[in-house]
Amino acid sequence: MTPAISARDLRKVYPGDPPVVALDGVSIDIRDNEFFTLLGPSGCGKTTLLRMIAGFEHPTAGTLSMHGDNLLDSPPHKRPVNTVFQSYALFPHLTVAQNISFGLEMLGKPADEIKATVDEMLALVKMEAMADRQTSQISGGQQQRVALARALAPRPRVLLLDEPLSALDFKLRKEMQLELKRLQTETGITFIFVTHDQEEALTMSDRIAVMNAGSVRQIGRPRDIYDHPAERFVADFIGDTNFLAGEIVSTENGHAEVRLTSGKTVPAPAPEETQSGRKITLAVRPEHAGISAGSDGLLSGDLREVVYFGTDTHFHVALDDGTAFVVRRQNRPDVASDLQAGARVSVDFPPLTGQVLRD
Ligand SMILES: Nc1ncnc2c1ncn2[C@@H]1O[C@H](COP(=O)(O)OP(=O)(O)OP(=O)(O)O)[C@@H](O)[C@H]1O
């Protein structure tokens, strides 16, 4: 199927002394009807890529197409794309309904069609009761809904969302995350969402592109990216991770046998054939590991600190090779923890849960 958006080797260099390489050869295919997230730290090029799709920036090199048609020759207003910005940019002197209808009037749509679309959009974002309120008299979360309704009203094929939830408080942001996902599913419009918040990306997206320093480091479904980060940057940026030194003993059929510094070996997924003897880093999520008293597990060390978080407890261990390792255990009323700081402990994790990282 032709992708909704296809970018090939996109490069953007902003002139200056020195010039800034904002995009350094980005290739991405975004599917039709997909909730696709560009995730990465500040300055990695997310907004530049979004602005390029909208038509506000032109690449220094590379190609960009939408549903198979070259996008780079069309001006922003000719692209079937709309953007929701972080600052909602609503007209404060107009009502909610007038804000939604404004763009449709500019497009010269007939009055009855505008009325029907505005009603439909008001229902979609659950703002029917506030249609006649001025947007200066509604809350931040409600303004965000109006901004979404306004952007969806002309039925763009692709909706670009540039950190649209970052101005909202924590609870509202959680609500709007679910709401955005619902809107995307109900409208079937391709959403391209920009955020530096990994949790936001994991909860809403069909797929995520993790970016760093102008390039895409990994593309995948949230679970694939979380469970199988391809490299250290991705493992570190998304969630918490323990990094263990190891050595490849052998690789076969996508699995590697990895020797840990304790001398014990553990199988781990390894997408590439890797030479035996090669030193690697194994990433292990804190919640995938277990801890027990004693020292006959996969790894052993000294328990340095036990930190209670309500929902779970974090055990900070100094492994015998000096590596710091955190085990996270979910708290349950029926499981008592008798491990105290100072104890000798074993750390274990099931086969195939550690991930061999690319350098
Ligand atoms: N108009 C411009 N002129 C010069 N440099 C720019 C311009 N716009 C962006 N940059 C630089 O390009 C790089 C990428 O910026 P971009 O805004 O795309 O990053 P971002 O990932 O969206 O960051 P943030 O999350 O902070 O918005 C940054 O180093 C930024 O300083």
From TrEMBL:
Q: Which CDD domains match?
A: ABC_PotA_N
What are the GO cellular component annotations? ATP-binding cassette (ABC) transporter complex
Going by the UniProt record, its keywords in alphabetical order are:
ATP-binding, Cell membrane, Membrane, Nucleotide-binding, Translocase, Transport
Question: What Enzyme Commission number(s) apply to this enzyme?
Answer: 7.6.2.11
Q: Which PROSITE patterns match?
A: ABC_TRANSPORTER_1, ABC_TRANSPORTER_2
Q: Which GO terms describe its molecular function?
A: ABC-type putrescine transporter activity; ATP binding; ATP hydrolysis activity
| One Pfam entry name | ABC_tran
SMART domains, alphabetized: AAA (SM00382)
Kindly indicate whether the keyword rRNA processing belongs to this entry.
no
Reaction catalysed by this enzyme: ATP + H2O + polyamine-[polyamine-binding protein]Side 1 = ADP + phosphate + polyamineSide 2 + [polyamine-binding protein]Side 1
Q: How does it assemble?
A: The complex is composed of two ATP-binding proteins (PotA), two transmembrane proteins (PotB and PotC) and a solute-binding protein (PotD).
The cross-references to PANTHER family, in alphabetical order and at most eight, read:
SPERMIDINE/PUTRESCINE IMPORT ATP-BINDING PROTEIN POTA, SPERMIDINE_PUTRESCINE IMPORT ATP-BINDING PROTEIN POTA
Function in brief: Part of the ABC transporter complex PotABCD involved in spermidine/putrescine import. Responsible for energy coupling to the transport system.
- Family named by the database record: Belongs to the ABC transporter superfamily. Spermidine/putrescine importer (TC 3.A.1.11.1) family.
Its name, as the record gives it, is Spermidine/putrescine import ATP-binding protein PotA
Source species? Roseobacter ponti
Record gene name:
potA
